[in-house]
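Page 42, continued from yesterday. The earlier attempt failed because a stray header line got pasted into the input along with the sequence. Redoing it now with the clean sequence only.
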Amino acid sequence: MELNEKVANFTLQDDQDQTVHLTDFAGKPVVLFFYPKADTPGCTIEACGFRDTFEKLQKAGAVVLGISRDTPKAQRKFREKYDLPYPLLADVDETVCNQFGVLKEKNMYGKKVIGIERTTFVIGPDQTLLQIFPKVKPEGHAEEVLAAIQSHKA
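This time it went through. Structure tokens are written below.
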């Protein structure tokens, strides 16, 4: 994924078992945040940050989509538990994770595992990649993304 390149369309199921395509949001900036696992501490902080900043992101015209390898059912439970106002997409077969290159080798309790590296992509209204936030720290991240969207609009 290179900045200013067109982002290829993708299709995933959301937490309501609805089919979602990236092209559904043509004409709006899209915030695509990849997180390792629903309802884990860091992911909850990040997801709730986007929840708390959601109104401002909407005012800026942005669509927010969270993606992890969890099932639609796990995504639904996570969304309902924290009252998240945006869809969570289930990438169970890792197709979109691979498309965006977010699967990385990590160390879990001394074992090497492949998992999602917390990464956010800002995609422009014309589906070009505007910004990448690699190795995201969950605290304050949503405000950082909002500032990026506002600066791209200016």
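Notes: The chain has a mean pLDDT of 95.
Reminder to self: strip header lines before submitting.
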